[in-house]
Amino acid sequence: MRNNGVTIIGTGSYLPKTIMTNEVICDKIDTTPEWIEDKLGIKERRFGVEETTADMAYFAALEALKDANINKEDLDLIIVVTSSPDQISPSTASILHNKLEIVRDVPSLDVNAVCAGFVYAMTIASTLISAGIYDKILIVASERYSAHTELTDRNCVFFGDGAGAIVLGKSNSGWLISHIASNGKETGMTGFRMPLDTPFKQKGREVWNQAVRVLPESMKEVLKEAELTADDINLLLPHQPSINILKLVGADIGLPIEKVKTVMEKYGNIASASIPIALDDAMKNNEIKKGDKLLFTAVGAGWAWGSMILNYED
């Protein structure tokens, strides 16, 4: 799917104050800090002890609005991406609308495709802008998996908390090509499952097998539609499942690890918020310039997955 006339006009992020190092988190589980760093690429992660999912979304949204230099009243739509909301209803997007104290009745909704949620939200938002329905859309991905983690379970090492935000707007020459997919047959206890009343459960090998299969396929799909090769890509911004998965899927499409943006060493896997946090980090560190071709990819439970290429222009 190709959507013309869209670009990112602002980014922001928020990471909780509480830092959980590998050394701290290994106290109650049968693994070592060295194993976590070697296999996953994670040294530490943040836990939202004082912050809720909605709080983090709010702080990241303020940063993105400031970076975009727009008035919050100019927003046409608010999308919050989360698989770890503070409550089922009202939606986190409605709570964010209230926290931002927006006077206008701006439509607001949540999107949940777990770790692939940001790619899904970008596909929806870019379609609405390209079609001329909306001009400016705020997308905020916020996750607080610490609230759903059993710290005596070995899988507690994977996830961290945080939020990333973008403002998507009109562009003269920017475009976005996306490919999203889902296989709803995998909704039982396969790779990842988080019921309402118990901590998440994960089967690492099944997550690995799915990621290394669908992510390269998805990225090749958008490269083909864009008539680009891996050499044309300036930076890959993936969701952050593990460093070894990223090395493998990058190599599969011909991208060296030097072109893969990682933040898991500082933040772990923040599910849907991983990509916009990595994007904001890259923007702040001048790793992205106008004219760059940015490739995004993610896979989440369900399974849901997707990739997109953004031609980053004014």
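Next protein, fold it too.
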Amino acid sequence: MNNCIEKQIELHAPQSRVWQALVDHRQFGEWFGVSIEQPFALGKVSRGHITHPGYEHLIMAVTVLAIEPQRLFAYSWHPYAVDPTQDYSHETPTRVEFTLQPSATGTLLRLVESGFENVPAARRAEAFRMNEGGWSAQMSNIERYLGHGTAA
């Protein structure tokens, strides 16, 4: 099994616009489907309720690992942490990185989620499968939010 999810999409939006959609917690929440309660800040935890139908009972929590303006936004989280009765805090989180590069038609957005080898074996394959599909959907969501692009 692969331990890394990689996605990229060509967005027809300037890098500054894509950057704001990623690091402004309200804009992030609009396309991602979460109501983040506080701004993203380096080294801090940001959390909020998932707004996607059927998942509203879940809280998403991310720890911001990197904010390099216009280039890199990274956080850690517990992938597919959907059982409200389970404590995931003892698990090693995965790392989610968004990198931006200028392109001929706007911005190339690349996503990498790594560290699945550290997810407990009992839930590793399901977490990977669900996040693989989830990130495909999220690439379409940010594309819709910003305007049209082409996924690769």
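About the second fold: Helices lie at 15-23, 25-32, 121-146.
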